[in-house]
Write a structure and sequence with these properties.
Two copies of one chain form a homodimer. Chain A has helices at about 30-40, 75-85, 140-145, 200-210, 220-225; strands at about 1-10, 50, 60-70, 90-100, 110-120, 130-135, 150-155, 170-180, 185-195, 240-250. With about 260 residues, chain A is α+β, with helices and mostly antiparallel strands. Chain A has two domains: about 1-100, 2-Layer Sandwich (Alpha-Beta Plaits); about 110-250, Alpha-Beta Plaits (2-Layer Sandwich). In chain A, α3 (about 140-145) packs across α4. The relative contact order of chain A is 0.18. The model of chain A has no long low-confidence stretch (mean pLDDT about 95).
Chain lengths: ~260, ~260
Protein backbone atom coordinates (compact mmCIF):
# COMPACT_ATOMS: atom_id res chain seq x y z
CA UNK A 1 0.00 0.00 0.00
CA UNK A 2 1.10 3.50 -0.72
CA UNK A 3 -0.38 7.00 -0.72
CA UNK A 4 0.09 9.45 -3.57
CA UNK A 5 1.11 12.98 -2.54
CA UNK A 6 1.01 16.02 -4.80
CA UNK A 7 3.30 18.79 -3.58
CA UNK A 8 3.98 22.31 -4.79
CA UNK A 9 7.49 23.67 -4.34
CA UNK A 10 9.77 26.65 -4.95
CA UNK A 11 13.50 26.43 -5.50
CA UNK A 12 16.41 28.66 -6.31
CA UNK A 13 17.98 26.82 -9.25
CA UNK A 14 21.37 28.48 -9.27
CA UNK A 15 23.16 25.84 -7.23
CA UNK A 16 21.36 22.84 -8.76
CA UNK A 17 22.30 20.90 -11.86
CA UNK A 18 18.66 21.07 -12.88
CA UNK A 19 15.62 19.18 -11.64
CA UNK A 20 16.32 15.67 -12.90
CA UNK A 21 18.48 13.22 -10.95
CA UNK A 22 22.00 12.85 -12.34
CA UNK A 23 24.73 10.74 -10.88
CA UNK A 24 27.11 12.70 -8.65
CA UNK A 25 25.32 15.99 -9.27
CA UNK A 26 23.22 18.05 -6.90
CA UNK A 27 19.69 18.03 -8.34
CA UNK A 28 16.24 18.93 -7.04
CA UNK A 29 14.75 15.48 -7.68
CA UNK A 30 17.76 13.77 -6.11
CA UNK A 31 17.55 15.97 -3.02
CA UNK A 32 13.85 15.25 -2.47
CA UNK A 33 14.24 11.52 -3.16
CA UNK A 34 17.09 11.31 -0.65
CA UNK A 35 14.90 12.93 2.03
CA UNK A 36 11.98 10.59 1.30
CA UNK A 37 14.25 7.55 1.44
CA UNK A 38 15.38 8.69 4.89
CA UNK A 39 11.75 9.01 6.00
CA UNK A 40 10.95 5.48 4.81
CA UNK A 41 14.14 4.18 6.43
CA UNK A 42 15.56 3.02 3.13
CA UNK A 43 12.60 2.21 0.89
CA UNK A 44 13.10 3.89 -2.46
CA UNK A 45 10.56 6.59 -3.37
CA UNK A 46 10.51 7.91 -6.94
CA UNK A 47 9.64 11.57 -7.42
CA UNK A 48 7.86 12.65 -10.60
CA UNK A 49 8.11 16.30 -11.62
CA UNK A 50 5.70 18.22 -13.84
CA UNK A 51 8.72 19.02 -15.99
CA UNK A 52 12.48 19.01 -15.88
CA UNK A 53 13.86 22.47 -15.31
CA UNK A 54 17.44 22.95 -16.58
CA UNK A 55 20.47 23.91 -14.51
CA UNK A 56 20.08 27.46 -13.23
CA UNK A 57 16.31 27.62 -13.84
CA UNK A 58 14.14 28.49 -10.84
CA UNK A 59 10.68 27.45 -9.72
CA UNK A 60 8.00 29.24 -7.77
CA UNK A 61 5.32 26.65 -8.45
CA UNK A 62 6.89 23.38 -9.52
CA UNK A 63 4.63 20.41 -8.78
CA UNK A 64 5.75 16.87 -7.98
CA UNK A 65 4.05 13.64 -6.99
CA UNK A 66 5.29 10.49 -5.32
CA UNK A 67 3.83 7.34 -3.80
CA UNK A 68 4.71 7.11 -0.14
CA UNK A 69 4.72 3.57 1.22
CA UNK A 70 3.14 2.63 4.51
CA UNK A 71 0.64 4.48 6.65
CA UNK A 72 -1.00 7.76 5.76
CA UNK A 73 0.86 10.85 6.91
CA UNK A 74 -1.50 13.86 7.04
CA UNK A 75 -0.59 16.34 4.24
CA UNK A 76 0.35 19.11 6.69
CA UNK A 77 2.66 16.76 8.54
CA UNK A 78 4.25 15.64 5.25
CA UNK A 79 4.80 19.32 4.35
CA UNK A 80 6.50 19.99 7.67
CA UNK A 81 8.58 16.80 7.59
CA UNK A 82 9.92 17.43 4.10
CA UNK A 83 10.60 21.12 4.72
CA UNK A 84 12.56 20.22 7.83
CA UNK A 85 14.83 18.04 5.72
CA UNK A 86 15.29 20.38 2.76
CA UNK A 87 18.35 22.56 2.15
CA UNK A 88 17.66 26.30 2.22
CA UNK A 89 17.26 26.55 -1.56
CA UNK A 90 14.13 24.38 -1.65
CA UNK A 91 10.83 25.02 0.08
CA UNK A 92 7.54 23.15 -0.17
CA UNK A 93 4.47 25.38 -0.25
CA UNK A 94 1.57 22.97 -0.40
CA UNK A 95 0.83 19.31 0.14
CA UNK A 96 -2.20 17.24 -0.91
CA UNK A 97 -3.18 13.59 -1.03
CA UNK A 98 -4.41 12.71 -4.51
CA UNK A 99 -6.02 9.84 -6.32
CA UNK A 100 -3.69 7.42 -8.12
CA UNK A 101 -5.06 8.47 -11.49
CA UNK A 102 -3.55 11.89 -10.94
CA UNK A 103 -0.17 12.19 -12.66
CA UNK A 104 1.88 15.34 -12.29
CA UNK A 105 3.04 15.25 -15.92
CA UNK A 106 0.12 13.68 -17.78
CA UNK A 107 -2.65 15.52 -15.92
CA UNK A 108 -1.41 19.07 -16.60
CA UNK A 109 -3.52 21.37 -18.74
CA UNK A 110 -0.79 23.96 -19.13
CA UNK A 111 2.16 25.72 -17.58
CA UNK A 112 3.10 29.27 -16.82
CA UNK A 113 6.69 30.39 -17.22
CA UNK A 114 8.03 33.82 -16.35
CA UNK A 115 11.28 35.29 -17.63
CA UNK A 116 12.96 38.37 -16.10
CA UNK A 117 15.45 40.46 -18.07
CA UNK A 118 17.55 43.20 -16.51
CA UNK A 119 18.30 46.14 -18.81
CA UNK A 120 20.97 47.56 -16.48
CA UNK A 121 24.26 48.37 -18.15
CA UNK A 122 26.07 46.45 -15.43
CA UNK A 123 24.18 43.70 -13.66
CA UNK A 124 22.75 44.46 -10.25
CA UNK A 125 24.71 42.12 -7.94
CA UNK A 126 21.50 41.02 -6.22
CA UNK A 127 19.91 39.97 -9.49
CA UNK A 128 22.76 38.13 -11.16
CA UNK A 129 21.28 34.68 -10.52
CA UNK A 130 17.67 35.74 -11.08
CA UNK A 131 17.54 37.73 -14.32
CA UNK A 132 18.78 37.45 -17.85
CA UNK A 133 20.85 40.46 -18.90
CA UNK A 134 20.25 42.59 -22.00
CA UNK A 135 22.06 45.92 -21.65
CA UNK A 136 20.77 47.31 -24.95
CA UNK A 137 17.89 49.63 -25.86
CA UNK A 138 14.57 47.85 -26.34
CA UNK A 139 11.17 49.10 -27.41
CA UNK A 140 8.77 47.22 -25.14
CA UNK A 141 5.69 48.09 -27.21
CA UNK A 142 7.25 46.38 -30.24
CA UNK A 143 7.77 43.21 -28.20
CA UNK A 144 4.22 43.42 -26.86
CA UNK A 145 2.79 43.62 -30.36
CA UNK A 146 5.01 40.90 -31.84
CA UNK A 147 4.22 38.56 -28.93
CA UNK A 148 0.53 38.53 -29.85
CA UNK A 149 1.41 36.52 -32.97
CA UNK A 150 2.43 33.63 -30.71
CA UNK A 151 -1.09 33.17 -29.37
CA UNK A 152 -3.14 30.21 -30.52
CA UNK A 153 -2.31 26.72 -31.76
CA UNK A 154 0.90 26.41 -33.77
CA UNK A 155 3.70 24.04 -34.59
CA UNK A 156 6.47 25.55 -32.45
CA UNK A 157 9.35 23.60 -34.07
CA UNK A 158 11.27 26.84 -34.74
CA UNK A 159 11.40 27.44 -30.98
CA UNK A 160 12.50 23.98 -29.86
CA UNK A 161 16.16 23.27 -29.16
CA UNK A 162 17.43 19.90 -30.29
CA UNK A 163 17.58 17.47 -27.41
CA UNK A 164 13.87 17.31 -26.74
CA UNK A 165 12.40 13.84 -27.22
CA UNK A 166 8.90 14.85 -28.17
CA UNK A 167 7.98 14.54 -31.84
CA UNK A 168 4.66 16.42 -31.84
CA UNK A 169 5.55 20.09 -31.55
CA UNK A 170 2.04 21.51 -31.84
CA UNK A 171 1.07 23.50 -28.75
CA UNK A 172 -1.51 26.09 -27.79
CA UNK A 173 -0.26 29.40 -26.44
CA UNK A 174 -3.00 30.80 -24.21
CA UNK A 175 -1.42 33.94 -22.85
CA UNK A 176 1.63 36.09 -23.53
CA UNK A 177 2.47 39.26 -21.66
CA UNK A 178 5.48 41.56 -21.94
CA UNK A 179 5.72 44.30 -19.33
CA UNK A 180 8.28 46.80 -18.24
CA UNK A 181 9.15 47.25 -14.58
CA UNK A 182 10.58 50.77 -14.76
CA UNK A 183 11.59 50.91 -11.12
CA UNK A 184 13.63 47.72 -11.46
CA UNK A 185 14.70 48.49 -15.06
CA UNK A 186 13.49 45.04 -16.06
CA UNK A 187 11.30 43.49 -18.72
CA UNK A 188 9.07 40.64 -17.51
CA UNK A 189 7.82 38.05 -20.00
CA UNK A 190 4.93 35.70 -19.13
CA UNK A 191 3.88 32.71 -21.22
CA UNK A 192 1.03 30.29 -20.54
CA UNK A 193 1.03 27.37 -22.95
CA UNK A 194 -0.50 23.89 -23.12
CA UNK A 195 3.08 22.63 -22.97
CA UNK A 196 6.60 23.87 -23.59
CA UNK A 197 9.28 22.39 -25.84
CA UNK A 198 12.94 22.15 -24.88
CA UNK A 199 14.36 25.67 -24.25
CA UNK A 200 11.21 27.17 -25.79
CA UNK A 201 10.80 30.12 -23.41
CA UNK A 202 14.45 31.04 -23.60
CA UNK A 203 14.36 31.00 -27.42
CA UNK A 204 11.10 33.02 -27.49
CA UNK A 205 12.60 35.64 -25.16
CA UNK A 206 15.77 35.89 -27.27
CA UNK A 207 13.65 36.42 -30.38
CA UNK A 208 11.42 39.05 -28.74
CA UNK A 209 14.46 40.97 -27.46
CA UNK A 210 15.84 41.07 -31.00
CA UNK A 211 12.52 42.52 -32.16
CA UNK A 212 12.55 45.04 -29.31
CA UNK A 213 16.09 46.05 -30.24
CA UNK A 214 15.15 46.49 -33.92
CA UNK A 215 17.30 43.62 -35.19
CA UNK A 216 14.20 41.86 -36.49
CA UNK A 217 11.03 43.30 -37.98
CA UNK A 218 8.00 43.45 -35.74
CA UNK A 219 6.04 41.08 -38.01
CA UNK A 220 8.70 38.36 -38.04
CA UNK A 221 6.89 35.90 -35.75
CA UNK A 222 4.40 34.38 -38.25
CA UNK A 223 7.24 33.84 -40.73
CA UNK A 224 9.44 32.14 -38.12
CA UNK A 225 6.59 29.88 -36.95
CA UNK A 226 5.86 28.90 -40.56
CA UNK A 227 9.52 28.09 -41.29
CA UNK A 228 9.52 25.26 -38.66
CA UNK A 229 13.27 25.65 -38.49
CA UNK A 230 15.28 26.14 -35.31
CA UNK A 231 17.98 27.98 -37.32
CA UNK A 232 15.65 30.97 -37.65
CA UNK A 233 16.42 32.04 -34.07
CA UNK A 234 19.95 31.17 -33.07
CA UNK A 235 20.02 32.85 -29.67
CA UNK A 236 18.82 31.35 -26.39
CA UNK A 237 18.36 33.62 -23.37
CA UNK A 238 20.33 32.59 -20.23
CA UNK A 239 18.81 30.04 -17.83
CA UNK A 240 19.18 32.52 -14.91
CA UNK A 241 16.10 34.59 -15.71
CA UNK A 242 13.65 31.70 -16.09
CA UNK A 243 11.04 30.73 -13.47
CA UNK A 244 8.50 27.91 -13.62
CA UNK A 245 5.73 30.02 -12.19
CA UNK A 246 2.64 27.81 -12.06
CA UNK A 247 1.41 24.44 -13.32
CA UNK A 248 -2.28 24.12 -14.19
CA UNK A 249 -4.29 20.95 -13.49
CA UNK A 250 -7.67 22.55 -13.95
CA UNK A 251 -9.01 24.31 -17.04
CA UNK A 252 -6.86 27.32 -17.82
CA UNK A 253 -8.83 30.21 -16.29
CA UNK A 254 -10.58 32.58 -18.68
CA UNK A 255 -8.38 35.53 -17.67
CA UNK A 256 -5.38 33.52 -18.87
CA UNK A 257 -6.86 32.73 -22.27
CA UNK A 258 -6.00 35.99 -23.89
CA UNK A 259 -8.27 37.13 -26.73
CA UNK A 260 -8.75 33.50 -27.67
CA UNK A 261 -11.96 31.62 -28.23
CA UNK A 262 -10.53 28.29 -27.19
CA UNK B 1 50.88 63.05 -8.59
CA UNK B 2 47.63 61.27 -7.99
CA UNK B 3 43.91 61.95 -8.16
CA UNK B 4 41.48 61.05 -5.38
CA UNK B 5 38.32 59.25 -6.48
CA UNK B 6 35.23 58.77 -4.32
CA UNK B 7 33.08 55.89 -5.54
CA UNK B 8 29.74 54.48 -4.43
CA UNK B 9 29.19 50.76 -4.76
CA UNK B 10 26.77 47.90 -4.17
CA UNK B 11 27.76 44.34 -3.45
CA UNK B 12 26.19 41.03 -2.61
CA UNK B 13 28.20 40.01 0.45
CA UNK B 14 27.32 36.34 0.56
CA UNK B 15 30.37 35.10 -1.32
CA UNK B 16 32.86 37.56 0.22
CA UNK B 17 34.82 37.16 3.44
CA UNK B 18 33.82 40.70 4.28
CA UNK B 19 35.06 44.05 3.00
CA UNK B 20 38.57 44.18 4.40
CA UNK B 21 41.51 42.54 2.62
CA UNK B 22 42.58 39.23 4.14
CA UNK B 23 45.31 36.98 2.88
CA UNK B 24 43.98 34.15 0.66
CA UNK B 25 40.37 35.20 1.11
CA UNK B 26 38.00 36.74 -1.40
CA UNK B 27 37.18 40.22 -0.09
CA UNK B 28 35.61 43.36 -1.57
CA UNK B 29 38.61 45.57 -0.89
CA UNK B 30 41.02 42.97 -2.27
CA UNK B 31 38.93 42.58 -5.44
CA UNK B 32 38.86 46.33 -6.12
CA UNK B 33 42.56 46.80 -5.29
CA UNK B 34 43.48 43.97 -7.68
CA UNK B 35 41.53 45.66 -10.50
CA UNK B 36 43.15 49.05 -9.81
CA UNK B 37 46.61 47.51 -9.77
CA UNK B 38 45.88 46.03 -13.19
CA UNK B 39 44.83 49.45 -14.46
CA UNK B 40 48.05 51.05 -13.20
CA UNK B 41 50.08 48.16 -14.65
CA UNK B 42 51.40 47.15 -11.27
CA UNK B 43 51.44 50.29 -9.10
CA UNK B 44 49.77 49.53 -5.79
CA UNK B 45 46.56 51.46 -5.07
CA UNK B 46 45.12 51.34 -1.55
CA UNK B 47 41.35 51.40 -1.23
CA UNK B 48 39.77 53.01 1.85
CA UNK B 49 36.22 52.01 2.75
CA UNK B 50 33.74 54.01 4.83
CA UNK B 51 33.52 50.95 7.07
CA UNK B 52 34.35 47.29 7.09
CA UNK B 53 31.32 45.15 6.50
CA UNK B 54 31.57 41.62 7.88
CA UNK B 55 31.38 38.37 5.92
CA UNK B 56 27.89 37.94 4.49
CA UNK B 57 26.88 41.60 4.96
CA UNK B 58 25.68 43.42 1.83
CA UNK B 59 25.98 46.99 0.61
CA UNK B 60 23.73 49.15 -1.50
CA UNK B 61 25.64 52.37 -0.86
CA UNK B 62 29.14 51.56 0.40
CA UNK B 63 31.58 54.41 -0.34
CA UNK B 64 35.30 54.06 -0.99
CA UNK B 65 38.13 56.39 -1.93
CA UNK B 66 41.53 55.80 -3.47
CA UNK B 67 44.36 57.88 -4.94
CA UNK B 68 44.91 56.94 -8.55
CA UNK B 69 48.44 57.67 -9.77
CA UNK B 70 49.14 59.31 -13.13
CA UNK B 71 46.87 61.26 -15.44
CA UNK B 72 43.28 62.19 -14.70
CA UNK B 73 40.72 59.64 -15.87
CA UNK B 74 37.28 61.28 -16.18
CA UNK B 75 34.94 59.95 -13.45
CA UNK B 76 32.54 58.36 -15.94
CA UNK B 77 35.40 56.54 -17.62
CA UNK B 78 36.71 55.35 -14.23
CA UNK B 79 33.22 54.04 -13.43
CA UNK B 80 33.06 52.13 -16.69
CA UNK B 81 36.63 50.80 -16.44
CA UNK B 82 36.17 49.48 -12.91
CA UNK B 83 32.73 47.98 -13.62
CA UNK B 84 34.17 46.15 -16.62
CA UNK B 85 36.69 44.49 -14.34
CA UNK B 86 34.39 43.63 -11.45
CA UNK B 87 32.91 40.19 -10.78
CA UNK B 88 29.11 40.04 -11.00
CA UNK B 89 28.64 40.50 -7.25
CA UNK B 90 30.06 44.04 -7.22
CA UNK B 91 28.79 47.06 -9.10
CA UNK B 92 29.89 50.69 -8.92
CA UNK B 93 27.04 53.18 -9.03
CA UNK B 94 28.75 56.55 -8.93
CA UNK B 95 32.19 58.05 -9.37
CA UNK B 96 33.50 61.49 -8.38
CA UNK B 97 36.85 63.25 -8.19
CA UNK B 98 37.30 64.76 -4.74
CA UNK B 99 39.67 67.03 -2.90
CA UNK B 100 42.47 65.35 -0.92
CA UNK B 101 41.01 66.55 2.36
CA UNK B 102 38.00 64.31 1.76
CA UNK B 103 38.39 61.01 3.61
CA UNK B 104 35.78 58.31 3.21
CA UNK B 105 35.98 57.31 6.88
CA UNK B 106 36.82 60.57 8.69
CA UNK B 107 34.47 62.79 6.66
CA UNK B 108 31.25 60.83 7.28
CA UNK B 109 28.47 62.47 9.26
CA UNK B 110 26.51 59.24 9.67
CA UNK B 111 25.51 55.92 8.18
CA UNK B 112 22.28 54.21 7.35
CA UNK B 113 21.95 50.47 7.87
CA UNK B 114 18.93 48.39 6.93
CA UNK B 115 18.13 44.94 8.29
CA UNK B 116 15.56 42.59 6.74
CA UNK B 117 13.99 39.76 8.73
CA UNK B 118 11.83 37.06 7.16
CA UNK B 119 9.05 35.77 9.39
CA UNK B 120 8.33 32.77 7.14
CA UNK B 121 8.19 29.44 8.90
CA UNK B 122 10.56 28.01 6.32
CA UNK B 123 12.92 30.39 4.55
CA UNK B 124 11.99 31.51 1.06
CA UNK B 125 14.81 30.04 -1.09
CA UNK B 126 15.25 33.36 -2.90
CA UNK B 127 15.80 35.25 0.34
CA UNK B 128 18.13 32.92 2.18
CA UNK B 129 21.21 35.11 1.61
CA UNK B 130 19.36 38.41 2.00
CA UNK B 131 17.25 38.19 5.16
CA UNK B 132 17.66 37.16 8.73
CA UNK B 133 15.15 34.52 9.78
CA UNK B 134 12.81 34.74 12.78
CA UNK B 135 9.97 32.22 12.40
CA UNK B 136 8.22 33.28 15.62
CA UNK B 137 5.29 35.61 16.31
CA UNK B 138 6.28 39.26 16.72
CA UNK B 139 4.28 42.35 17.62
CA UNK B 140 5.67 45.02 15.31
CA UNK B 141 4.07 47.90 17.22
CA UNK B 142 5.96 46.85 20.37
CA UNK B 143 9.24 46.97 18.46
CA UNK B 144 8.33 50.34 16.98
CA UNK B 145 7.66 51.81 20.41
CA UNK B 146 10.75 50.28 22.05
CA UNK B 147 12.97 51.47 19.18
CA UNK B 148 12.15 55.11 19.96
CA UNK B 149 14.18 54.81 23.17
CA UNK B 150 17.32 54.35 21.06
CA UNK B 151 17.05 57.86 19.60
CA UNK B 152 19.45 60.53 20.76
CA UNK B 153 22.98 60.54 22.14
CA UNK B 154 23.89 57.53 24.28
CA UNK B 155 26.79 55.35 25.30
CA UNK B 156 26.00 52.25 23.21
CA UNK B 157 28.48 49.92 25.01
CA UNK B 158 25.70 47.38 25.65
CA UNK B 159 25.29 46.98 21.89
CA UNK B 160 28.95 46.64 20.92
CA UNK B 161 30.48 43.21 20.39
CA UNK B 162 34.00 42.75 21.68
CA UNK B 163 36.49 43.03 18.87
CA UNK B 164 35.89 46.68 18.06
CA UNK B 165 38.94 48.87 18.63
CA UNK B 166 37.15 52.09 19.41
CA UNK B 167 37.08 53.18 23.06
CA UNK B 168 34.54 55.99 22.84
CA UNK B 169 31.16 54.33 22.47
CA UNK B 170 29.01 57.44 22.55
CA UNK B 171 26.99 57.84 19.36
CA UNK B 172 23.93 59.76 18.22
CA UNK B 173 21.03 57.77 16.82
CA UNK B 174 19.15 60.08 14.44
CA UNK B 175 16.50 57.79 13.03
CA UNK B 176 15.04 54.37 13.76
CA UNK B 177 12.20 52.80 11.85
CA UNK B 178 10.59 49.37 12.16
CA UNK B 179 8.09 48.46 9.48
CA UNK B 180 6.25 45.37 8.41
CA UNK B 181 6.15 44.31 4.77
CA UNK B 182 3.03 42.14 4.90
CA UNK B 183 3.26 41.02 1.29
CA UNK B 184 6.80 39.73 1.83
CA UNK B 185 6.13 38.64 5.44
CA UNK B 186 9.19 40.61 6.50
CA UNK B 187 10.12 43.17 9.12
CA UNK B 188 12.45 45.92 7.91
CA UNK B 189 14.61 47.80 10.43
CA UNK B 190 16.31 51.08 9.52
CA UNK B 191 18.91 52.85 11.66
CA UNK B 192 20.68 56.13 10.95
CA UNK B 193 23.42 56.84 13.46
CA UNK B 194 26.49 59.10 13.67
CA UNK B 195 28.50 55.89 13.70
CA UNK B 196 28.02 52.21 14.43
CA UNK B 197 29.97 50.00 16.83
CA UNK B 198 31.03 46.44 16.04
CA UNK B 199 27.93 44.27 15.33
CA UNK B 200 25.73 47.06 16.72
CA UNK B 201 22.86 46.75 14.21
CA UNK B 202 22.74 42.97 14.51
CA UNK B 203 22.61 43.21 18.33
CA UNK B 204 19.92 45.93 18.21
CA UNK B 205 17.80 43.83 15.86
CA UNK B 206 18.16 40.75 18.08
CA UNK B 207 17.04 42.79 21.09
CA UNK B 208 14.07 44.35 19.28
CA UNK B 209 12.92 40.92 18.06
CA UNK B 210 13.00 39.67 21.65
CA UNK B 211 10.80 42.63 22.62
CA UNK B 212 8.47 41.94 19.68
CA UNK B 213 8.21 38.31 20.74
CA UNK B 214 7.45 39.24 24.34
CA UNK B 215 10.65 37.82 25.79
CA UNK B 216 11.63 41.26 27.04
CA UNK B 217 9.47 44.09 28.37
CA UNK B 218 8.76 46.94 25.99
CA UNK B 219 10.55 49.45 28.25
CA UNK B 220 13.78 47.45 28.48
CA UNK B 221 15.87 49.69 26.20
CA UNK B 222 16.70 52.53 28.64
CA UNK B 223 17.75 49.96 31.26
CA UNK B 224 20.00 48.10 28.80
CA UNK B 225 21.61 51.35 27.59
CA UNK B 226 22.27 52.39 31.17
CA UNK B 227 23.82 49.02 32.08
CA UNK B 228 26.69 49.54 29.57
CA UNK B 229 27.15 45.80 29.53
CA UNK B 230 27.25 43.62 26.42
CA UNK B 231 25.94 40.67 28.47
CA UNK B 232 22.51 42.31 28.61
CA UNK B 233 21.78 41.19 25.04
CA UNK B 234 23.42 37.91 24.19
CA UNK B 235 21.94 37.36 20.75
CA UNK B 236 23.29 38.74 17.47
CA UNK B 237 21.09 38.59 14.35
CA UNK B 238 22.63 36.81 11.34
CA UNK B 239 24.89 38.77 8.97
CA UNK B 240 22.69 37.76 5.98
CA UNK B 241 19.97 40.34 6.57
CA UNK B 242 22.23 43.38 6.95
CA UNK B 243 22.71 46.05 4.27
CA UNK B 244 24.90 49.14 4.40
CA UNK B 245 22.30 51.34 2.80
CA UNK B 246 23.81 54.82 2.62
CA UNK B 247 26.77 56.80 3.94
CA UNK B 248 26.24 60.50 4.67
CA UNK B 249 28.92 63.12 4.00
CA UNK B 250 26.59 66.10 4.27
CA UNK B 251 24.46 67.13 7.24
CA UNK B 252 21.97 64.39 8.01
CA UNK B 253 18.78 65.62 6.32
CA UNK B 254 15.99 66.91 8.55
CA UNK B 255 13.63 64.07 7.54
CA UNK B 256 16.19 61.63 8.92
CA UNK B 257 16.51 63.35 12.28
CA UNK B 258 13.45 61.86 13.84
CA UNK B 259 11.74 63.89 16.56
CA UNK B 260 15.10 65.21 17.58
CA UNK B 261 16.24 68.76 18.04
CA UNK B 262 19.86 68.04 17.19
Amino acid sequence: MSIRYKMTMAYDGHLFHGFQTQRNQRTVQGTVEAALTKMTKGKEVIVQGSGRTDAGVHALGQVIHFDYPGNIIPPKRMLFALNSMMPLDIVFRKSEIVNKNFHVRYSTTGKWYRYRVSLDKFTNPFKRFYTGHYPYPVDVSKMQRAAQDLLGTHDFTSFAASGGQIKNKIRTMYYVNVQEDKKENEVIFDFICSGFLYNMVRILVAMLLEIGNGKRPINDVPRIIKAKNRQEVRETAQANGLFLYHVFYEDIPKKHRQDLDL
